[in-house]
Amino acid sequence: ESIYDFEIDESAKKGISEAYFLTYLKKWFQYPWRILEHCKFGAERYTPTADFILINNDFNLGLDIEIDEPYTFKELQPIHLVENRQYIVRDKFFLELGCIVVRFAEYQIAKYPDYCCLHIARVLNQYLESSLKISIPDCTEIVPLKPEQWKVKSWTFREAQIMANDKVRDQYLEAVKSFNSLQSEQNTQQEQN
Predict the structure, then answer these.
(1) pLDDT digits (tens, 9 = 90+) for 153-177
(2) Cα separation of 40 and 177, whole Å?
């Protein structure tokens, strides 16, 4: 029941790749799955906000999806660090709510969004009967990846500093930035009409 005790946090800061990945989540996880953005769960002292919660009411099954960036764009501050205990506490919070926690590096979301959704489906399929298993959507091609293409090691503060200095996010976010630019143009046109 606790996975349903939430409110949408309108003030939450959205990551640059969230709207992009949401389009893939909607393609893969349709009714009876619900995709909730920036859910804030009630707790006495600690109330984290999830990037996405994927819920299936029929099975009382929830999955917290987190997208981890190595550093902030404006200040180039390292974030989502392997040595930061906050993320262990955060994952524990969602696990205690009854959610499965899946974390992706922003690189994985930007480069391989369908593969990320396939990974989520595989995790969920472990809990579903064979007749209810999630399959690959029509017109979706999954290109086989080598482990070195897909896997991303968690980063330390120093590694995140190096990535920030090298501006590695600029190297893999082309598709995300194009998507966001197109969305912005479409929103502007709708406002003008």
Answers:
(1) 999 999 999 999 999 999 999 999 9
(2) 27
DSSP of 52-121: EEEEEGGGTEEEEEEEE-SB-TTT--B-S-TT-HHHHHHHHHHHHHTEEEEEEEHHHHHH-HHHHHHHHH
Contact 63, 70 (CB under 8 A): no
Please indicate, yes or no, whether the overall pTM of this predicted structure exceeds 0.85. Answer: yes
Token match 């040595």: residue?
83
Interhelix angle 18-28/113-125, nearest 10 degrees: 50
Backbone angles phi, psi at 192, to 5 degrees: -75, -25
> Is there a contact between 103 and 119 (Cβ–Cβ < 8 Å)?
no
CB 26 within 8 A of CB 52: no
List pLDDT tens digits, range 134-156.
999 999 999 899 989 999 999 99
